[in-house]
Amino acid sequence: MSLKWTDVLEIAIQLAEAKPDVDPRYVNFVDLHNWIVALPEFSDDPKRGGEKVLEAVQAAWIEEAD
Predict the structure, then answer these.
(1) How do the domains of the chain map onto residue ranges?
(2) Tens of pLDDT along the chain (66 residues)?
(3) Residue 6: CA atoms inside 13 Å, Cβ hemisphere, count?
(4) To bridge 42 with a disulfide, which of 3, 13, 26, 51 should be the other Cys (CB 3.0-4.6 Å)?
(5) Does residue 3 sit in helix, strand or coil?
(6) Are 38 and 3 in contact (CB under 8 A)?
(7) Beta pairing partners, 42
(8) 27-44 b/e with 16+ CB inside 10 Å = b?
(9) Fold annotation for 8-65
(10) pTM of the model
(11) Are 3 and 44 in contact (CB under 8 A)?
């Protein structure tokens, strides 16, 4: 399976598994973007990861963590 920016929930799940000690409420978007594009299954254009999609991923990650 390959991840695209539209796979917000799956990205959030993988980040929660990869970064269990990170509180997603305090992650800045630069780090978040870098972590997403570094996921093994991520295969989308890194330039397409704008603020709106990063906000959506962060919100889903917060939801996943709760």
Answers:
(1) 8-65
(2) 799 999 999 999 999 999 999 999 999 999 999 999 999 999 999 999 999 999 999 999 999 988
(3) 1
(4) 3
(5) strand
(6) no
(7) 3
(8) beeeebbebbbeeeebeb
(9) Arc Repressor Mutant, subunit A (1.10.10)
(10) 0.94
(11) yes
